[in-house]
Amino acid sequence: MTEERLSFQAEVSRLLDIVAHSLYSEKEVFLRELVSNASDACDRLRYAALTQPELTAGDADLGITLLVDKEARTLTVADNGIGMNREDLVENLGTIARSGTAAFMRGMTGDAKKDVSLIGQFGVGFYSAFMVADRVEVLTRKAGEEQGWRWTSDGKGEFTIGEADGAARGTRVVLHLREGDDEYLEETRLSTIVRKYSDHIAIPIRFGAGESVKTLNSASALWMRSKSEVTEEQYREFYHHAGHAFDDPWLTIHWRAEGAIEYTNLLFVPSMKPFDLFDPKRAHRVKLYVKRVFITDGAEGLVPPYLRFLKGVVDSEDLPLNISREMLQHNPMLSKIRSGITRRVLNELGKKAGDPESADAYATFWENFGAVLKEGLYEDFEHRKELLKLLRFRTTHGDGLVSLDEYVGRMKEGQEAIFTISGDDAESLKKSPQLEGFRARGVEVLLLTDPVDEFWVPSVGEYEGKRFKSVTKGGADLGRIKAADDAGTPKPEEPPADALDSLLALFKLTLGSSVKDVRRSERLTDSAVCLVADETDMDMHLERLLKQHKQLGADGATRILELNPAHPLVVRLAERAKANGADPDLGEVAWLLLDQARIVEGDPVPDPAAFARRLSALVAKGLA
Q: Which domains occur in the chain, in start order?
């Protein structure tokens, strides 16, 4: 087969351009990334060899080797792990195959220093090699296959793939170093980098060949060491390795479970949100080991989906070493490990949430992962109590985050419910007319802006005996809540009861089946009208979400139109209805006000032409 020339995926070309022109201050991390990839390749071969021992025949001593050729100015990172075939090379080195590519592209800022950090977040650390190399060769042969392959690229848009006879099992990455990067040809410099970033890797990293071979790392599993023996820097570098991450961990949790079953855990909460956090697969990034042997990095059931932001390692002493990924799904030990992990992680998060000195740090965590954590409220009844304590909310009282305990502690006299309002963003919600009466009485309302809020709130139902109630549903219940002391403030004028009743009756008759009811509003103080859902109907925001995702037809539930009896417009309309209920202009105003309420809610006007005609006619009469 002749050499084949292929183009990089557009996203890769853009990424490589950023890498090549980056002024990144720590170029040395390229070695960490390549060594980490080599370590993963060895781990995967060791697992595969449990059931296929022939894969390691003749070369079972897995390791990583660094070789330099000063004359040719090359640095080689070689491993004898699982290796790659042609398809693997195209997928792993030519495309960004993981989900979230669009999010990755949106994350690009144009600032090279910032954008290069996205490489690690997206799990494509191999490309960091182009920070120090103007050409990269990869020579590889997959375990169990005869044919070897060579991949080469200068990182400028294309790469070539061709057959390579005589290639050894595993992968050799040969970096042709740029001018000025000769420091990476020196043993002492490479040794320092390995000790700094990769000492924890449980596979030997050697320098040199033949008689002069030195092992550069301690080659012991970091997670098996006592916490007192591990420094913060070592934890941080292990996180970078295990999570293929460039950010630092927000929280490190290291413990050993002993008793009926024994397992060791070293888990991290990232400080930055992964791009694929909301991928439909909801897969976690925690690696499972058995007696220090890597099994899988996607054990279904090891971590609940709502903790999928966790990265790190779980090492079991009790699971069978040759367990298959299929058998794992039905192993009762795994469910016990999962329960222990969940309990411990939620407990550690609870400590952070309850520490006043960590309020700002916890707010950062919540902004990143709060929406995911809330999924557990309707999926994990066993841990619902702990999860509720972790919740934080934006509210109508200030810009900070509020816990449910804080909210309940400052509820108003006569207030029996935890009031909520759902929408796309907090700032828009604060302007909603449904909040006017609550604001006037000083009643705090939770601003719910995550789609998941529409599911956990009805599932949970209440907190500390206080039910959750949407301000856009049913009666506002404001009559029972003591109003703020506004002595001396004149109450707005309202029309006589019979006049208002006449107006409501006229509106009901005019609007017919377009509304479920027309009634006096307790929740409005400034706006003339608003739409609300009946107590038994779907929340208005949830209905909009379902329509957007085509899970609900265009015709939703009819709403209730509420009129503010103290609004000057409603007062005048009521007077006119009492004096002349048959006035055709009142019917036109009824339709205009209904459309106005729809517009304020962000809903489309069913008949824009009729709306424009009515508005024009009304303005013309007012100017006559």
A: 4-218 (3.30.565.10), 223-356 (3.30.230.80), 393-489 (3.40.50.11260), 497-623 (1.20.120.790)
